[in-house]
Design goal:
Blueprint: H1 3-16, E1 37-46, E2 51-52, E3 57-64, E4 67-75, E5 85-88, E6 106-113, E7 120-127, E8 132-139, E9 152-155
Parallel strand pairs: 1-8, 7-9
Antiparallel strand pairs: 1-2, 1-5, 3-4, 3-6, 6-7
């Protein structure tokens, strides 16, 4: 390799940074801003999603089911749907930075409770900024539940070993 080429490149780089105490970063990592939000809708169904379950109490929370911090609650309408829960999330730009170590989404939990049905709890539902997520819960009639009358718990974010 030509020694003059290396020296010219070195001189050019030094002139670019002349008078600066530290190099200029091409792009800074975005910090989650307060006000970044995503939406989450709950849908209550029965019999493998064929029928909707109106008047189901849906609670959005964080923490464990035994020690939950309730964010909001709503009841499903005649179509089995809740309102759009507006929830804080990290900025979506975090997912575009390959060096980012911050999770670019928030995780929330939902509990579905209706008279005559087993309670369903869905854990680790991902919610992204600017996206409306939908969590469907297929409720099981108490009379068909057998001996298990406790809540059914579903983990929506299983770990995969890739």
């Amino acid at each position: 390799m030509d020694k003059n080429l290396i020296d010219r490149y070195k001189a050019e780089m030094m002139s670019l940074y002349k008078g600066r105490s530290k190099p200029v970063m091409a792009q800074t990592v975005p910090v989650p801003q307060q006000g970044d939000t995503g939406k989450l809708i709950g849908v209550a169904t029965q019999i493998r999603g064929i029928y909707f379950v109106p008047n189901t109490k849906v609670t959005v929370f964080t923490g464990s089911p035994d020690n939950m911090q309730i964010i909001d609650t709503d009841f499903t309408n005649e179509n089995g749907r809740t309102k759009e829960f507006i929830l804080p999330t990290p900025a979506k730009a975090l997912s575009e930075d390959q060096n980012n170590t911050i999770q670019p989404y928030s995780l929330y939990n939902m509990m579905f409770e209706a008279d005559g049905y087993l309670t369903n709890i869905h854990l680790n539902i991902p919610v992204f900024e600017g996206v409306t997520s939908r969590q469907t819960s297929n409720l099981l009639l108490l009379e068909t539940a057998g001996v298990n009358k406790g809540p059914r718990i579903f983990d929506e974010m299983p770990n995969y070993n890739l």
